[in-house]
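Final report, closing paragraph on structural work. Over the funding period we assembled a curated collection of sequence-structure pairs, and we close with a single example.
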Amino acid sequence: MVQLAVRRAAGGAAEWLLLELQGQLEARGGGGGGGGGLAGRLLGDLHFTQEGAPVLIVGHHVLYGKAVRLEKAVAVLRRGAAAPEEPRGPAAYEVAALIRTKLLFKTRPKPIVPSAARKA
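Its predicted structure, as stored:
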């Protein structure tokens, strides 16, 4: 049996949201399978309507979604040493954040088309 030490982060765990998108996201100018991807890049703008529904704007597309409460919370763990004086000793984990809500975007993105100037 494997035992893991899990402790609460100092100051309490942060509350995060899980973002679920249908389909595939590709970074522009990625140049094929050369790596890089979306790491460290801005995905888009997340807004909420007055009713609390999430709206995600990615490039020239808008996605409408809904907030869903998860049945079971998900813990985000950060790995560290059980004893700071022994960095090669057994691992201990710290709860960095808790995820209780996910934002679900299951419809196809709609293109944002700027309105053309009317001719007089």
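The two ends are 79 Å apart (CA to CA). The mean pLDDT is 80. We thank the funder for supporting this effort.
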